[in-house]
Amino acid sequence: MLRTLRGIIKLEISGSGYEKLLNDMNEGSIPCFNVRVENEKLYIEIYKNHFSKVENICEKHNLRINILSRKGIIFKILKYGKRYGIIPGIILFVIISFFLSNIVLKIDINGNENVSDEQIIDFLKRNNIDYWSFIPKIDLDNIGRKLYIEFNEISWATVRNSGGILIVDVREGTDKPNMVPINQKCNVISDKNAQIVKIKVYSGTSAVTVGDGVAKGDVLISGIVTDKFGKSQAVRAEGEIIARYTEEVCFYQPLESVSLNECGKIENKSLSLWGKNFYQRNNIPEDKMVKTETRISNFSVFGIKLPIGISNDTYYLYEYKKVKDTPISAEEKCIEKIKDYEEIFYSDKIIYDKEIVKENDSKGVKIRVIYTIDSKIGVKQNIIV
For 8-22, 178-192, 317-331, which range has the lowest pLDDT when averaged over its residues? Predict the structure, then answer.
């Protein structure tokens, strides 16, 4: 392979005294190979860059030299070397290909039914993504997350590129079918101490009625059914039971506390080559806690990602601060905690009633909330038959 790259010339040398030629070549450290003598002629192969030296030695010893063949990539390059437009043309072609592979030329959207293509394209435009946008500057992961948040119909989204094609893949949420194995026999039992408010039985036999009080572990829907002939069999009990029960939750806010607060962010861009960043600015304060998010947008040519790109680093700065509250502000923070708790844990339940009990002391504010909840209860309990 190396010989081919350097270029090989095959020579036919005739005349007397070619032994002197070989001696001079040896003294001048000029390599040769495939040496043979045939019909009083010397046949050798040498590298292209040694030809002028061998030619001078042959002239010195009155030897005639004849070039039989030339092999190697170098000769093909020299052949087209005088065609001055080829190399600039190749460079221009690579530049144009590189440019077209890193701008948005087409947007493909897949997997959407309830959300139209126009809605998604409008969303992209509102986030400064349109045709001819420079792809390495687009935070593809972040756009996928924003798309998921923007549309309630979308349960999953990702944005990627293949060359100059921006591909948006989405998955819309669908109701999960009830998969009920026919061989799984079970009861529905209570997982709360509660009072029955509403009951619907889809299969099995109801063991309670509206207004009944039940304890945790009591059977709500029995998986044992008896037909009109008095024959009993086990089935998979199914139903919907709404019950009323109480829960107590405590919330506390000290008057003096330490909190970790975000105090700013710094965005840096640098050149990334094979995962290593170059020309990266180090302007991060040493006295701050830092959370780093890194996104590398690689350049591509013909849809093939190159190991070079732009690294977008976002540094979120945090610092600890001592916070002092008055009893009033501490109580307000407790109320905010209560709202957050209800939004997270009771969003699918009905708060029938709640009792708030405040217990202030010298160090903080404590609020006990006793909730009366209307919600679904019941868990499956297998029947061994």
Answer: 178-192
Per DSSP, 50 falls in state G
**Is residue 374 very low, low, confident or very high in pLDDT (cuts 50, 70, 90)?**
very high
Q: Please, which residues have CB within 8 angstroms of residue 319's CB and are 6 or more apart in sequence?
A: 260, 261, 263, 287, 288, 289
Per the CB < 8 A criterion, the answer to whether 73 and 273 are in contact is no
**CB-based contact 256:322 (threshold 8 Å):** yes
E-strand ranges in 255-343 read: 256-273, 276-278, 289-301, 304-324
Domain boundary among 172, 195, 230: 172
At residue 373, the pLDDT reads 95
198 is a domain residue: yes
In a domain, 61, yes or no: yes
- Cα(201)–Cα(187) distance, rounded to whole angstroms? 12
Phi, psi of 158 (to 5 degrees): -145, 145
Question: In total, how many domains does the chain have?
Answer: 4
* Contact between 86 and 145 (Cβ < 8 Å): no
Residues 135 and 198 in one domain: no
- The residues with which 214 forms a beta bridge, in sequence order, are 194
Q: What is the per-residue pLDDT for 178?
A: 47
Q: Give the per-residue pLDDT at 274.
A: 66
210-254 confidence digits (pLDDT tens): 999 999 999 999 999 988 888 888 888 999 999 999 999 999 999
CATH number of the domain at 6, please.
3.30.70.260
Domain of residue 133, residue span: 106-172
d(CA 310, CA 290): 21
Question: pTM for the full model?
Answer: 0.43
Last residue of a domain, one of 302, 323, 344: 323
- What is the residue-averaged pLDDT of the chain? 83
What distance in Å separates the CA atoms of residue 190 and residue 188, rounded to the nearest whole number?
7
